[in-house]
Amino acid sequence: MQINVFSVILIILAALIIAALIKAVLGPRFTDRIVAVNCISTMVIVFILILSWYLKAEYLVDVAIIYALLGFTANLVLTRILLHKDQTPGKKKHRKGKGKEQEEENP
Questions:
Q1: Is 99 within the bounds of a domain?
Q2: 37 close to 75: Cβ distance less than 8 angstroms
Q3: Among positive and negative, which fits the CA dihedral 16, 19, 25, 31?
Q4: What's the pLDDT score for residue 107?
Q5: DSSP classification of residue 57
Q6: Is residue 101 a part of any domain in this protein?
Q7: Distance from chain centroid for Cα 12
Q8: CB 40 within 8 A of CB 24
Q9: Which domain holds residue 30?
Q10: Is residue 98 part of a domain?
Q11: Does the residue 58 lie in any domain?
Q12: Taking CA 77 as the corner, what is the angle to CA 75 and CA 83, rounded to the nearest 5 degrees?
């Protein structure tokens, strides 16, 4: 049995995807989860492209492009949710001094 370079690369990518999935589940902050999901999306795209080359199936390149567009859109939506989650109505944040944020009530 001959070990193919493509097989080794795909196995390494699968292990990295699993590690990023664990980080996405256990991440202490919401931003860590967003970064982990973005990494998973990128690695899946690379996985699909390598598989496309290995199987000589050009249609998988189209699938990877569509997956990239969907991943980018999902990343924008999650970032938008994060930004709106941090802003509470009636309160404005501004910085005072070094790294200290204070909240003020709007009149």
A1: no
A2: yes
A3: negative
A4: 56
A5: -
A6: no
A7: 18
A8: yes
A9: 5-87
A10: no
A11: yes
A12: 100
Q: How many domains does the chain have?
A: 1
Provide the greatest CA pair distance for the chain: 75
> What are residue 73's phi and psi, to 5 degrees?
-65, -40
Q: How far is 89 from 54, CA to CA, in rounded Å?
A: 53
For the stretch 73-92, pLDDT in tens is 988 888 888 788 767 666 55
**pLDDT tens per residue, range 5-53:** 888 999 999 999 999 999 999 988 888 888 999 999 999 999 999 999 9
Q: Give the helix/strand (H/E) hosting 17.
A: helix 5-26
* pLDDT on residue 81: 85
75, with CB counted inside 10 A (0-12, 13-18, 19+), is middle
Alpha carbons 33 and 23: distance in angstroms, whole number: 7
